[in-house]
Amino acid sequence: MQDSRHHVPNPLRPYYVPPSIGADALPNATSNASKPTSSSSGFTFPDLDYSDYIPDGSPSLTGSIKSYIDQAFWKYATVVLGQPFEVAKLILQTRVAQDDELDEIPKKRLQHHDQEEVQLNGFDEYNEEHSSDDEPNYFTSAAPFDRPFSSRSPARGRRGRPSRESASPRIPDRHQKSDGRIHLKNPHSLLDTLSALSSTDGGLAMWRATNSTFVYNILTRTLETFLKGFLAAVFAVAENDILSGSAGGAVPDTSILSSTTPLATILLSTSAAALSALVLAPVDAARTRLILTSSNEGPRTLLGTLQTLPTPYLIPAHLLPITFFTSTLPTLISTSTPIVLKSYLGLDPAMNPASWSLATFLGSAVDLSIKFPLETVLRRAQIATWTSPSYSSPTTSSKRKIITTIVPVPQSYRGVLPTIWSITREEGFSESQKDKTAALMGKAPRRKRKGQGIEGLYRGWRVGFWGLVGVWGTSFVGGLQSNTEAASAEAGVHGGKF
């Protein structure tokens, strides 16, 4: 006989409704009130269809391997497509401005005049060598026919003319100097840099250090993710919050808005980015050297280049401050941008999609404007590791040698602020737009000012800016499309009701 307690409402639980499933298991319940019932263990549930919630089963080993291979191929293809622009940007950032960069037109005229002078000198030498003193006098009866010998007689061709090698000197390539370095007509042009590089070292020179860049990107993402999870476990922060607040993209991630501890998420994300950048700084420095040296400058492998560091496989001491600032400040700005927009400006990505997209674009532009000067200083500090003899340790100074780069690079590194001051106030010359206009109109002579100004800190900025525009435009169009589809679906639902 079934226990009546399961059919009569319990006065202690007046709103409890006994389940209708598993009624056959009720006789198994005992009448002892002190003994816990186990009626729920005998409930029988009907077959439920979970196909809508779990569409696919567990992936097989072959499917997992294929997925990893596809992701690796896609990331490597991304690196290959963007490597020429990365190479051009790095060359522009590390190149030391020359004092005569503003005198391009007079320099071209001077080069043309020098070439004409060389050609005229060649023909003067030819005329001097073939003067009338070398010719026999056929109208003198007393003099015997004796052709004088001249040691300066040039090699003659088939018709007695001097050969091309002696008549016209060889003019060197306009992109290459005598020391193997490339010459740039415009020190701020990416296309001119790629053209000069490909004309001197071949088309494959634009893809230097592609494998090293791919390895560096993979190691950075892997190590940063690991450090985020480790720090989240140490400081008792939800792992989903710290991992979702990643700042790796050009547009800030809005998933940090759902974090229960946004301040801790920002600090831990910034700390993970700084630690991973410090650990992988030798790899980044080796990548910089492989890009800025010609194919004849060995070694050309990543491991071989790491062994040429003053402290092999470890970050040099002079790279610690600039690497720390380059990794922390942009990450801090990018991660905290969504919090600032929602807390202080009252913007919401769901309620104000257009305003939110525009605000995040401006925030990313601010992030890029701070990141580029720091990255310029970082690249110069990295290449100074091999060009400055002051960074050689006593144990390796006899084995290391000063390398030859494809562009003029700094021979020493004095620090973050001194390098910024040197670029803006001491290196090369600059000319304001007002002076340029006045000089073109003939109202005033050209005025050159010492130093490149702020513009010298933003060489190659178009690479980062156009990348930001592309990512932001894609996300903006995708957001508009999703909002349009949601509005259409809502209109269809209301139309069906009426």
TrEMBL record:
Residues 127-136 have a biased composition (Acidic residues). Gene3D superfamilies: Mitochondrial carrier domain. This is Mitochondrial fusion protein. Its main location: membrane. The keyword Membrane applies. One of its GO terms (cellular component) is membrane. The keyword Mitochondrion applies. Residues 171-182 have a biased composition (Basic and acidic residues). Keywords: Membrane, Mitochondrion, Mitochondrion inner membrane, Transmembrane, Transmembrane helix. The lineage of its organism: Eukaryota, Fungi, Dikarya, Ascomycota, Pezizomycotina. It is found in: Membrane. Residues 127-183 are annotated as: Disordered.
